[in-house]
Write a structure and sequence with these properties.
Layout: H1 17-37, E1 58-63, E2 69-71, E3 74-76, H2 81-91, E4 96-101, H3 107-120, E5 124-127
Parallel strand pairs: 1-4, 4-5
Antiparallel strand pairs: 1-2, 2-3
């Protein structure tokens, strides 16, 4: 009689299917969140519930829907703003940047204006808003 030895299989297999599922779920999650972030460049600027006057030296910056920019009534572009802001930071004691952006203006341009002013030493920023019309429903935060 021939004896056949039973060999124990000591190797074990790792099931890769759950790991692949997790990788695909993460891939889908990151794809969806990255495309949603691309649409966050434009914003509809809010209306104010109360108006406050600014007491310090203000620098009025107007941003138009076509991308045009005015600083204290003089037309400018993004390339010329660093020199203008540097001069204003020297001339005024504590300048405050008052941004009067059109409702349809790109918020990216407003962000660039703030960044350039900050690099020039202007540290305070205010967004000018419209007063709500009489009888208009005003949203109040919770």
């Amino acid at each position: 009689m021939i004896r056949i030895r039973k060999t124990k299989d000591t190797s074990f297999g790792l099931d890769m299917a759950p790991m692949i599922n997790v990788v695909f779920l993460l891939l889908i999650f990151f794809m969806l969140t990255s495309t949603a972030m691309k649409h966050g460049q434009k914003v509809d600027l809010p209306e104010s519930q109360s108006a406050e006057k600014i007491k310090q030296d203000t620098v009025q910056v107007k941003v138009y829907p076509d991308g045009g920019i005015e600083v204290n009534g003089q037309a400018n572009d993004l390339a010329g703003l660093p020199a203008v802001f540097a001069q204003l930071a020297v001339d005024k004691k504590e300048p405050v940047l008052e941004i009067q952006a059109d409702r349809k203006a790109s918020f990216k341009i407003c962000g660039d204006v703030i960044r350039l002013a900050n690099e020039a030493g202007i540290r305070e920023f205010v967004f000018a808003t419209d007063q709500p019309q009489a009888g208009a429903k005003v949203h109040t935060p919770l």
